[in-house]
Amino acid sequence: MSLIGNIIWLIFGGFMSGIGYIIGGIGICATIIGIPFGIKAINLGIATFTPFGKEVIAKPYAGDVLTTIFNVIWIMFFGWGIALSHLLWGIILAITIVGLPFAKQHFKLMILALLPFGREFA
Predict the structure, then answer these.
(1) pLDDT per residue over 25-80, tens digit each?
(2) Which domain does 103 fall in, by range?
(3) pLDDT of 66
C-alpha cells in the first residue's frame, strides 16, 4: 500500500512540493547563518517525496536548549508557513474519502515542518 500511495503522492503534487522545499533549502543555505535551516528544509523536501510508510520520530535530544532555540527561530521564519500549507491541504483532502490517506500524510508532514529540529522522518 505504501508503494502505491507514494507513487500516487508523487504524481499529484508530492514531487513538485519536495523540489520546492529543496530549492528553498538551497536558497537558505546561500547565507552562511542559514545553513542549519537550509539543511532541515532540504531534509523536509526529501521526506515529502515518500511520506507513506514513515513516521515522525522524536530524537532523545529533542528537548535540549539549542534544539528548542533552533525550533523557535524556524517557526518564526519558515515553519509556520509550511505547516499552515500542510494543514490547509490536509483539511481539503480530508473532505473526501479518497483523500483521507493523503490528508494523513499532510498532517504527519505538518508536525515535521513545524518542529524539524530534534525529529526525523523514518
Answers:
(1) 999 999 989 999 999 999 999 999 999 999 999 999 888 999 999 999 999 998 99
(2) 2-121
(3) 93
Note the pTM of the prediction, 2 decimals: 0.88
Answer for the pair 106, 99: CB distance below 8 angstroms, yes or no.
Answer: no
Spatial distance between the Cα atoms of 50 and 32, rounded to a whole number of angstroms: 29
CA 92 vs CA 2, 7, 25, 103, 104: distances in Å:
21, 20, 26, 8, 11
Cell, residue 50: 515518500
For residue 1, what pLDDT is reported? 74
Mean pLDDT value of segment 91-106: 93
**What whole-number distance in Å separates Cα of residue 76 and Cα of residue 63?**
18
- The number of domains in the chain is 1
User: Among 45, 69, 70, 67, which Cα is nearest to 58's?
Assistant: 67
Nearest Cα residue to 40 out of 66, 21, 55: 21
Asked if residue 55 lies in contact with residue 108, where contact means CB atoms within 8 angstroms, the answer is yes
